[in-house]
Amino acid sequence: MTEAKPTPDKSALSRERILRAAMALADADGLENLSMRKLAQALGVEAMSLYNHVKNKEDMLDGMVEQIVTGFHAPKDQDDWLAELRLRATCAHATLTRHPWAAHLLLGRVNAGPRMLGYVDATLGCLHKAGFAYQDADRIWNALDSHIYGFALQDQKFPFKPEEFASVAAQYLPQIPQSDLPHLHALTSEVAAGQHYGAQDFSFGLNLLLDAIARLPRHQP
Question: pTM of the predicted model, to two decimals?
Fold first, then answer.
């Protein structure tokens, strides 16, 4: 006798449950393949029932952004502001790595939900407490976010996996003649020989930025 499948609990449908399911689908299939029809199928409900909790797909995407921000660290306005900025960057990087579609979504729309606005406000507050004018605080957090989001996009789009770097470098080495391109040839040779990992390093770039920010002039907080 075939065991009956459990009937989905439609009464448990909520905005948060819809957003979690949408994020899971985007993680699995990419944001471009996310549709309200597929989301309804995953939840075991009719597509029209979703609209009792989200206005439309755009509203759902805004809600997904707000869910992503819960994985970010809103820096506190305390004395060790550099440590707070570092934690802010590393948490955002880890979240964007877990959800490869998120960087595109964050950069491609106006994000004005309460969590995102609170995150930005906390960042400005941390930097202002550290002694930076609001204009400089704005430049600083935008520079940091350019590194965070840019690194995430580059990491996702790079055509080779880190474990492939050595073999790929060896493959391309004959196309980089030492006589014409001596420095690139030397570097590629090191990657091919396993002497240099060659992968992008998020922490290295972050350290450069934080070191430069720490040397910027500040007023007394």
Answer: 0.86
Locate all alpha helices (DSSP H) within the chain, ordered by sequence. 15-29, 36-43, 47-50, 57-69, 81-98, 102-107, 114-129, 134-157, 165-172, 182-192, 202-214
Cα(90)–Cα(132) distance, integer angstroms? 22
The pLDDT value given to residue 221: 52
Domains of the chain (ranges; CATH) run: 11-54 (1.10.10.60), 65-158+213-221 (1.10.357.10), 159-199 (no CATH)
What is the spatial distance between Cα 175 and Cα 164, in angstroms, rounded to a whole number?
18
Distance CA(216)–CA(221), nearest Å, equals 14
- The one-letter amino acid code at 94 reads A
Is a pLDDT exceeding 60 seen at residue 3?
Answer: no
Closest CA to 212 of 142, 146, 140: 140
Please check whether residue 96 is in contact with residue 213, taking contact to mean a CB–CB distance below 8 angstroms.
no
For residue 52, which amino acid is it?
A: N
Residue identified by tokens 């880890």 is: 94
Q: What is the 3-state secondary structure (H, E, C) of 53-94?
A: CCCCHHHHHHHHHHHHHCCCCCCCCCCCHHHHHHHHHHHHHH
